[in-house]
Amino acid sequence: MMRIIFLLSLFFALSNASVQDFCVANLKRAETPAGYPCIRPIHVKPSDFVFSGLTPGNTTNIINAAVTPGFVAQYPALNGLGLSTARLDLAPKGVIPMHTHPGASEVLYVLDGSITAGFVSSANAVYVQTLKPGQVMIFPQGLLHFQINAGKSSAAAFVTFNSANPVKKLKGVLGGTG
């Protein structure tokens, strides 16, 4: 019984949310395994909770796509909340290649254009759908997935992750090394 209590107390001790309402990151200090140290609440402003950085990205590259992150480094109010966001911009023929986020599920919300998106389950079943503005698709944690502009004009989407750092992994996928 004491082991269970100890493990539960350790779990709650590692979560900022269990000790305080929020923890706006102090990016001037070093990041730790638990995230960044917090700015003292008396120094936090309402504007710290607002982020204006999800602007259109530059799609003039080999994949005709851009990912504009809204992670803790860009949006310090996300620190300790286990969330992050990004904007996807896809020019015509744009693609976010097959990749995975080992520690995060992803929700895709289409803003403009037409995006064909899909994922491969652990049983090798393929789920593909062409999405229009206002539609949402989920990519379960750790599964290979992709997004392709299915239209003749630009497309845009917002994505949200249930992880503060949903690092994209391409290693071993389509010749990727990261």
UniProtKB/TrEMBL annotation:
Gene Ontology MF term list: manganese ion binding
GO CC, any one term: apoplast
Subcellular location per the Swiss-Prot or TrEMBL entry: Secreted, Extracellular space, Apoplast
Residues engaged in binding Mn(2+): H99, H101, E106, H145
Transmembrane segments: none
InterPro entries: Cupin_1, Germin, Germin_Mn-BS, RmlC-like_jellyroll, RmlC_Cupin_sf
Gene3D superfamilies to which the protein is assigned, alphabetical: Jelly Rolls
Span of domain Cupin type-1: 52-171
PROSITE patterns reported for this sequence: GERMIN
Keyword Manganese: yes
Disulfide bonds: C23-C38
Keywords: Apoplast, Disulfide bond, Glycoprotein, Manganese, Metal-binding, Secreted, Signal
Binding residue positions for oxalate: H101, E106
Keyword flag rRNA processing: no
Signal peptide: 1-17
Main localization category: secreted
Family: Belongs to the germin family.
Protein name listed in UniProt: Germin-like protein
The organism of origin for this protein: Cardamine amara subsp. amara
